[in-house]
Amino acid sequence: MWLLIDPMYLLFAVPGLLLGLWAQAYVKSSFAKYSKIRARSGFTGRDAARTVLRSGELTDVRVEPIPGSLTDHFDPRSKIIRLSEPVYDADSIAALGIAAHEAGHALQHDAGYIPAAIRSAIVPVASLGSGAAMPLFFVGLIFHFQALQLFGIFLFAGVAVFQLVTLPVEFDASRRALRALASSGALAEDELPGARKVLTAAALTYIAALLQVLLTLLYMISRRR
Q1: Starting from the edge strand earliest in sequence, which strands make up the sheet with 62-66, in order?
Q2: Would you kindly state where each structural domain of the chain is located, as residue ranges?
Q3: Is 102 one of the catalytic residues?
Q4: Whole-angstrom Cα distance, residue 178 to residue 181?
């Protein structure tokens, strides 16, 4: 309720919210555009993921389909790449780019890529902070309990760190993916820009998420002061 009646919160929240909505729309439009363009190699998303895995000599990572759209992800605990329905069996430039990107995360995990390891380590703090930080902060604000306010800010700072570390992880996974797609011939040289645009659009959502978190953190600090 406090967030709905505090004009200062809107001042901080609206820019990040608008950027986030634009980034989501851009991802969907880019994916839709390059989903209509078939890769000349005939590779599917499943093939692209396995190609990237072979480039890193990974034989213990499975590739499986998962329901939904843009639900693709790599699960490091079970070592499974899960590809959404429009990606798994599709032979479009967009499908190959996204599938290869998720396989890039598997390469990071195998190589012990430090930013990815840091992100995995702070997942519990980020999960707790995303759900509990704001309620704790506003309870402390309403009842003038400064220790609770500071604890809420501390938890939400963990969310900010998580989002910040996510950026190099995502950009590096895309770099690994595009390099493997090019060297394997899964995508021709003139097809790579399309895959790059899809992955860049996806990266913008992480930038928007980071901005939203930072603006919210600044709001919390300014309200406490």
Answers
A1: 62-66, 80-84, 73-75
A2: 2-224
A3: yes
A4: 5
